[in-house]
Amino acid sequence: MKRFTLIFSLMMTMFTAAMAQESVDFSTGTLDGQWGDKETRSIWTSANGLQIVSTDANGNEVGSMKYYSNRFTLYINEGVATPIKYTITVPEGYSLTEMKVKNSTKSHDAHIDYDWSSYSLYNTTAEKTIQFVEGVNEFFLYGQVGRTIYVTSLTITKTGGEETGINEVKGENDEVKAIYDLTGRRINEIAGPGIYIVGGKKVFVK
């Protein structure tokens, strides 16, 4: 009974975490704002209200985004020394979780700077995964003028409400299991994917 209760609780946790995450559908969004090179625009808005705005170093809108051939593309028209800044605004009740990008060609020397980290896209067309920090919604793209990179996925997570996690994990006799993160800090709920210590046992939540 104890094992069944714990397994059921963990299954509910994984199901809840998965339901809280949403992948942004680029095919249903709209492009607007300032025109740029190669029919790019400076504002992209998703069906649920998420918005991406591209600007130059002075904060002026720069057309640098488009969607074609089933790909969401960031076009570089500012040069390596002058990055394009992208600001993502998510709907109320959501936070940014993850973005995956890839180089359009191996020879394109490009990199993305986000939260004091730099993700090089040079000499590879493999996907790079950027994990967003809560409250940080801007990144900078550097590269050669006339080149592009692709955003292959963008994930947001619902915050607040009962859908984002569970407040308790119970075992046999309805006893509450203590939950800790990997730093040893006790937390009130499992609010996202990762590795946790629940009742003294390591648990992986997808």
Q: What can be said about the biggest beta sheet?
A: 7 strands, antiparallel
CATH hierarchy class name of the largest domain: Mainly Beta
The average pLDDT value, as a whole number, equals 83
Q: Please trace the helix and strand order, writing H or E for each element.
A: HEEEEEEEEEEEEEEEEEEE
Given as residue ranges, the uncertain stretches (5+ residues, pLDDT < 50) are 1-19, 161-172
Q: What is the domain tally?
A: 2
Q: Provide the spatial order of strands within the biggest beta sheet.
A: 2-3-4-7-12-9-10
Which percent range fits the helix content?
Answer: under 10%
Q: What's the total number of strands?
A: 19
